TrEMBL record:
The keyword Zinc applies. Keywords: Zinc. SUPFAM superfamilies: LmbE-like. InterPro entries: GlcNAc_PI_deacetylase-related (IPR003737), LmbE-like_dom_sf (IPR024078). GO terms for molecular function: hydrolase activity, acting on carbon-nitrogen (but not peptide) bonds, in linear amides. Transmembrane segments: none annotated. The keyword rRNA-binding does not apply. This is N-acetylglucosaminyl deacetylase, LmbE family. It comes from the Bacteria.
Length: 256
């Protein structure tokens, strides 16, 4: 295992808000860790039922009750491409505190703010992840993580990468869970947001997917999320037409 991957240990937990986040932001790292025998766990907060759908044959799913279940299927396909890591949705076993009935955290939705960052939608459901009590979310993370004796937790930075309220909630829950477990917390450096990796470069961990042959698996996993993005010639296009290069280097910053 390369030095950059060793920092996560043999049993890292990756926490993401919606299906597709795991592949876009950390897919290559997950695939490389799994290939080298690490026991990777992915926890997903919601089914992403409020996501916008790219134009094409699946666009009719947008805004319907069928989108969430469809995205669950896309996630299952993506995880197979990433080496079939262990996975759970928060709120359902094994990612549910034993003293609570199972539940689904719903996608909070978002809108774009004047500063170019995402912000909370005005019509977020009371069942949404961003409005859930932090202790409840943390307890669900701990329920899933404790049995596997995690070596690290990986999730978003305090801004949730680009501001999505569900990302922010996963960050807060991940930080608290890592503190209670006494393990390291690594924040994803979001490549689509300018300036997020300008400071504290001595704390930056870089995973070079080309050097360690992880880019192909990441690309296949991203392509599985057909409702959310389209893979084209080394780039991916989102529902609003935004085009970004598929990250050949994934970056993280250890917060503690």
């Amino acid at each position: 295992m390369s030095d950059s991957l060793l920092v996560f240990g043999s049993r890292p937990v990756f926490m993401h808000a919606h299906p597709d986040d795991e592949s876009i932001s950390t897919g290559g790292t997950i695939a490389l860790l799994a290939r080298r025998g690490a026991q990777v766990t992915i926890l997903t907060g919601t089914r992403g039922e409020r996501g916008e759908v790219v134009p094409g044959d699946l666009h009719e799913l947008e805004g319907t009750a069928a989108l969430g279940p469809h995205r669950v299927g896309e996630l299952a396909s993506a995880l197979r491409e990433l080496g079939a890591p262990a996975h759970a949705f928060l709120g359902t076993a094994p990612a549910r505190a034993r003293d609570r009935a199972e539940r689904e955290y719903s996608d909070s939705g978002m809108r774009w703010g004047a500063d170019g960052f995402a912000e909370a939608a005005e019509d977020a459901s009371p069942t949404s992840l961003s409005l859930a009590a932090l202790d409840e979310v943390v307890d669900d993370v701990l329920a899933a993580a404790t049995a596997g004796r995690p070596t690290a937790i990986v999730s978003y930075d305090a801004l949730g990468g680009y501001g999505h309220p569900d990302h922010v909630r996963m960050h807060a829950a991940g930080v608290e869970a890592a503190r209670r477990l006494g393990v390291a917390f690594f924040a994803i450096v979001e490549p689509r947001v300018a300036g997020t990796d300008d400071d504290h470069d001595d704390e930056l961990i870089e995973v070079d997917l080309l050097r360690f042959d992880g880019l192909a698996a990441k690309t296949r996993a991203m392509a599985a999320h057909r409702t959310q993005l389209t893979v084209e010639n080394g780039s991916f296009v989102l529902s609003g037409g935004q085009r970004h290069p598929i990250g050949a280097v994934e970056r993280f910053r250890r917060l503690f």
